[in-house]
Design goal:
Bound molecules: fe (ii) ion
Shape: globular
Distance between the termini: 18 Å
Strand order of the largest sheet: 1-11-7-14-5-3-2
Strand content: 15-25%
Largest sheet: 7 strands, antiparallel
Structural class: alpha+beta
Order of helices and strands: HHEHEEHHEEEEEEHEEEEEEH
Length: 269
């Protein structure tokens, strides 16, 4: 297995040196970006060679072992929203389709090594003003890998979790862009008409983001609507999703595991 220095660009991102001024400056920059944009990116956080090797190693596993996650859903992932008529344009239906592999299937890979790297966990906690973050205690759900092939997309939604950590492993030739509308709603105002406007394609505040493979993204998506646009071309978009929580021992329920992955038992080596 490669050393973490061979995998991550710790020269550019000194997350392993919390006592340095460079570390403090990086934390400040990330906090500023979070406040302004609701996210931050560490571009080419994973070294090019390591990123390419991980994508090459993981990609064939999607063909034989992945769960094809395909569903029609509205932006809320709920059938009914109280006080909202079922024909309201905020409830229009879109399709999400991807192929998912989980942490228990790819235990020896570099993204799992990165997920478990304590200085990264502590760094993300520092940028989010949290005393501590913890890995999930769920050998399936803690890290997910998704491949999106030509025509597939992650459609409009709000996240359930407070924040999401993703690491892009392979970028498609075209499409597969992250599209988002910041602060479309608040905890007190669901702004259904604003949601409808976005879904009808007439919200001028909608933004597109294009990142390179190897980029680590931390994103607050509870009230920022977002999607990944359909992939164009033969090259899949491959992304890993890291789940951390501000409390230890978090697991998915059996129903959640079945819904997301089609199984509730980890694979045995
Ligand atoms: Fe999301």
């Amino acid at each position: 297995m490669e050393s973490i220095e061979q995998i991550l660009d710790l020269d550019r991102y000194p997350i392993d040196r919390p006592d340095s001024s460079a570390y403090r400056a990086l934390v400040k920059k990330c906090k500023d970006d979070l406040a302004e944009y609701g996210m931050y990116n560490l571009n080419q956080f994973m070294r090019q060679k390591a990123t390419d090797a991980a994508a090459k190693e993981i990609y064939p596993r999607f063909v034989s072992e992945s769960f094809h996650h395909k569903r029609l859903h509205n932006i809320y992932f709920k059938k009914h929203i109280p006080n909202l008529p079922s024909d309201h344009p905020a409830l229009q239906i879109h399709e999400t389709s991807n192929h998912t592999l989980c942490a228990d299937q790819l235990t020896e890979t570099t993204p799992i090594q990165i997920y478990q790297y304590q200085p990264l966990i502590d760094f993300i906690a520092a940028t989010m003003d949290k005393p501590k973050l913890y890995q999930m205690d769920d050998s399936i759900a803690k890290v997910n890998f998704m491949a999106y092939h030509e025509g597939e997309a992650l459609n409009w939604h709000f996240d359930r979790s407070e924040f999401t950590v993703t690491l892009l492993l392979q970028k498609p030739d075209a499409g597969g862009l992250f599209e988002y509308r910041s602060d479309l709603r608040t905890d007190n105002d669901p702004n259904y008409d604003g949601v409808a406007k976005l879904l009808c394609g007439s919200d001028p505040e909608k933004k597109l983001m294009d990142v390179d493979a190897g980029t680590l993204n931390i994103f607050r998506g509870k009230n920022t609507a977002h999607r990944v646009t359909p992939i164009e071309g033969d090259k899949a978009r491959i992304i890993s999703v890291f789940s951390y929580f501000d409390r230890p021992d978090v697991c998915f329920s059996t129903d959640e595991l079945l819904g997301f992955y089609g199984r509730a038992e980890p694979v045995t080596a």
